[in-house]
Every structure is written in C-alpha cells, then in structure tokens.
Amino acid sequence: MASSLKDIFQRFSDSFWSETIWLPPNVTWRTYEERAGGIEYAQFNDIYFSLLTAIVIIAVRFTLERFLLRPIGRKLGIKDNRVYSVPHNRILEEFFQNSKKLSRDQLAGLAKRTDLSERAVEKWFIKRKNINKPTTLVRFSETAWRCLFYTFIFSFGLWALYDKPWTWDSSHCFINYPHHSVSPEIWWYYNIELGFYLSLLISQFFDVKRNDFWQMFIHHLVTVLLLCFSWAGNLHRIGTLVLIIHDFADIPLEGAKLTRYLKTPRLANVVLTIFIVCWIYSRLGLLPFRVIYYSAYYTLTMFPMFPAYYIFNCLLAVLQLLHVIWTWLILRIAYNAIFVGGVKDLRESDDEEDPDDSE
Fold it and tell me: pTM for the full model?
C-alpha cells in the first residue's frame, strides 16, 4: 500500500513538473543542475529553506511584539482595555447569536423585554462584540511589526538590486533567458520574501480579521505561487521587480494605520497622502508598465513561449486585479479623511467598535 502511494505520488510529481510545462524548448532540469558555463542557476530545492525562514520570521514577530512593540505602544498612551465577560442575559445572548446588527426598533424592543434601559442594552452589545476582538494595543503592535518588516525588506531589496541592470531596464529580465545566474543577495532576498508571505498565510488566521480577509488570502497565495514558479523557471529577475514594487507602498500603508492608532489626525492625513501617491505610482504605474507589459508583450519575440509562462502572466493579472479593487478602497479612505474628518482603516469590519471606547 505504501509503495503504491509512493508510485502514485511520483507519477503525479513527474507529470506536474514536466519540462515541457515549466521550461523553454531545448532546456531541461539537468541544464540548471549542471551549472554550465559557470552560471549559478536557481535550484527549486532552495524553496524549502523558506519554510524554515517562515518559522523564524513568526518567532521574531511574536518576540518583538511582546517585548518591544507593545511596551512602546503603552508608553505612547495606547490602551489595552479588554472585555473578559458581560453579565449573563439569556434574551440578549440569544438575539446576539442570531444577529450581530442592532437596529433602533430592535433596541427598543429588547429594552422592554429585559427591563433595561436602551443605553444599558447598547453597552451590553458593544462589550459582547468586543470580548473576542483584539485591543487597540494588539492591533498597533501587529501593524508596527509589518511596518518594520517592510522597511527592512525594502531597504534590503534596494541594496540587492541597485547595481543590477534589470532594475533600471526591464528588458534585461529576459535578455539571454533562461541563462541567468543567481547572486547570493538575490537568493537571500527571495528566501526572506517567500518566508514572509508563507508566514502571512499562517498568521492571517490568527491576526485581526478584516473585510478583505479572503482577498488578502488570495493575494498572499498568488504571491507565494508567483515566487515559487518564477524561481523554478529561473524568472527571478522579473520576480524581484514585483517584490520591490509591492514593498514600496506597504511602508506608508502601515504607517498610516499607526498614526490612526496614535490618534494624530493631521499626521495621519499627511501619511495617508504619501501612501496614496506611492500606491498609485507603484501598483497602477510601475507594476503594469515595468513588469506586466514586458512580461506579457515585450518578450513575445525574444524566446519561444511555454505553458508556465502563461501561468506566470495569469497570476500577475490576478495580482493587478486585486490592486484595482484595493485602489477603490483607498479612494474611499481618502474621501473619509477629507470629507468625514479622519482616517479609518476600511479593511476593518464596518461594525467594529474600538475596545478602548466600549464604555
């Protein structure tokens, strides 16, 4: 039985990693293994190191959040008020389990049924909703961690890519493809980035839940697949451009949320403006014109197409579609900041109450 399963898995693996799917014509996996001409090709087994990197990143994250970021948040005046329980009320609990929304008419009806004031019923529901929600301090530390990581990895990416020709001219991503060597700094850049996105796929189920949970899950999954497939097909040059373009706008994104938690509206609006400019420039400017254009059109006359290349470009298209959706959310944030009077993270649930304001 075990031997049979092993044979089935081996046949599936051989079919899935077929050279006719993943490699250009006249190129084999042995080409990469032999390192002909002194070229250090990307090795698919290197991807497994990212699993260990993901574990290390998760450990570093929770260590920093607990021993550094949360103490800093407390010193900055961010509260950690948590609601542990509410007075038991069978009528209110039954209604809460069936409906998380509470209209004015329902509020009045529940007040009559429980002999409580409308304000008491309203406070009960606010506390009940906040029992399982993270406090502002938890959200602050989570956001601060991401801001720190994006700052680090963007700086590392600049250092790794500043002297590479494809950084300044995307055509070099495909000239003489697939015979591209992988330098140590590019190896580490890919390894850390893939480890980080693998850690996000895991931690997303324990982090603050937001409205775009599944969009973010798809985004992280697509990014992991892009990294794995581009590494397997030695398309790491175009992959590094996708990575650094993404990290560029993520720094002010997390910074804008930090200013919201710190309740500094003027600074929040400034950082929000910087973020919007960075986002539109990178996600709707650089990505389609410096990456997707070259990947989907410019290369058509440079080398024969192969199935994995179409898979790679489809994943890029999905990524760009998600960016368009998020751009709409960003414009809503800008509208809220200008006309309503403050920055709100629209990725959070619309009915979310700030635990610190539950009283």
Answer: 0.82
pLDDT of residue 357: 43
Q: Which residues are CB-neighbours of 350 under 8 A, at least 6 positions away?
A: 211
What letter represents residue 277's amino acid? Answer: V
Least reliable range by pLDDT among 178-182, 233-237, 290-294, 349-353: 349-353
Residues in the chain, total: 359
Confirm if 121 and 114 have CB atoms less than 8 A apart: yes
What does the block give as tokens for 30?
């042995």
Q: Is the alpha carbon torsion for 258, 63, 77, 209 positive or negative?
A: positive
Place of tokens 């961010």: 78
Which strand (E) or helix (H) includes residue 17?
A: none
Long-range contacts of range 302-306, CB-CB < 8 Å, 24 or more positions apart?
302/174, 302/175, 302/177, 303/24, 303/174, 303/177, 304/24, 304/25, 306/20, 306/21, 306/22, 306/23, 306/24, 306/25
pLDDT digits (tens, 9 = 90+) for 288-307: 999 999 998 888 888 888 88
Q: 348 has which bridge partners? A: 210
Question: Do 153 and 196 touch, CB atoms closer than 8 A?
Answer: yes
Whether residue 178 has a cis bond before it, omega within 30° of 0: yes
Cα 297 to its chain centre, rounded Å, is 27
Helix axes 184-203, 136-161, angle to 10 degrees: 160
Q: What is the pLDDT of residues 83-128, one digit of tens each?
A: 667 788 888 888 888 876 777 888 888 888 888 888 888 888 888 7
Distance CA 352, CA 340 (A): 17
Nearest alpha-carbon partner for 248 in 218, 195, 285 = 285
Burial of residue 249 (number of CB atoms within 10 Å: 0-12, 13-18, 19+)? buried
Contact at 8 Å (CB) between 333 and 212? Answer: no
